[in-house]
Amino acid sequence: LLSGLTLISPLLDAFLVAATAEVLTFSAFWGYPILKSRAIAADIEANLPFVLIHMQTIARSGAPPAALFKLVSEFKEYGEITEEFRRIVRNIETFGMSEINAIKDVILKTPSSTLKDLLSGMITTIQSGGKLSDYLSQRAEEIVFEYRLSRRQRADMLATYADIYTIILIAAPLILVIVLTIIGTIGGAVFGLPPQMLIQLCVYGFVPLLNIMFLAFLIMTERG
Question: Over the stretch 71-112, which tens digit does the pLDDT of each residue have?
């Protein structure tokens, strides 16, 4: 019986390791594209207000849409928007698409809903014979206002998080360590454990773990 258990135990360990590795691998392959798409969308949303200001300036000079996209696509500072506009330019110059079809192709593929709306509005304006500079100017005002509002809300939220961090991850552990030190000085114990051990658990385990969780929370809220 003992020999049988001895054989089963390594097999069970190997099975658990293999199952865990499979789950982690599947999660990575499934989750990475989603995280990548969200990161691209977030980059586009962050740069779009500045791109719009640039676009409306170019449009006021009377430049056609193809030239507008080409000029903006030369600025690497705009991040993922530069890549999206390069696709439009490539569709027109390399694949011979019309301006409308080239823009529609990017609308279907971009992960940013705001950029989708902007490009769709540009198509409507072009097809209806409207003035592109007026449309871009209006959209620039709207998006810049939304950007400023979101930045202000973000700043307020970060201030709240800073207060929470100070209380939970700085003040509370410090008070706990002081209390445990006093208990250790008078020779007491907490739940039968020596205070020195609890201090080590707090400093080397509890506090780092909470910091990691707090950092992960900030990253998730930023991407969300």
Answer: 999 999 999 999 999 999 999 999 999 999 999 999 999 999
Q: Which two tokens stand for residue 38?
A: 């969200």
Write down the pTM of the prediction.
0.66
Give the pLDDT confidence of 150-202 residue by residue, as tens digits. Answer: 888 888 888 898 998 998 888 988 898 888 888 888 877 777 778 888 888 88
Cα–Cα distances in angstroms (integers) from residue 80 to residues 51, 86, 141, 184, 224, in the given order: 11, 10, 21, 57, 18
Whole-angstrom distance, CA of residue 54 vs CA of residue 41: 20
Residue with tokens 């409308």: 100
Distance CA 15, CA 85 (A): 49
HSE (side-chain half, CA atoms, 13 Å) at 212: 6
Round to whole Å and give the CA distance between 147 and 151.
Answer: 6
CA distance 109 to 4: 57
Q: Which residues, 6 or more positions from 92, have their beta carbon under 8 angstroms from its beta carbon?
A: 66, 69, 98, 99, 102
Instruction: Single out the residue of 102, 47, 106 nearest to residue 76, CA to CA.
Output: 47
| Beta-carbon count within 10 A of 99 CB | 18
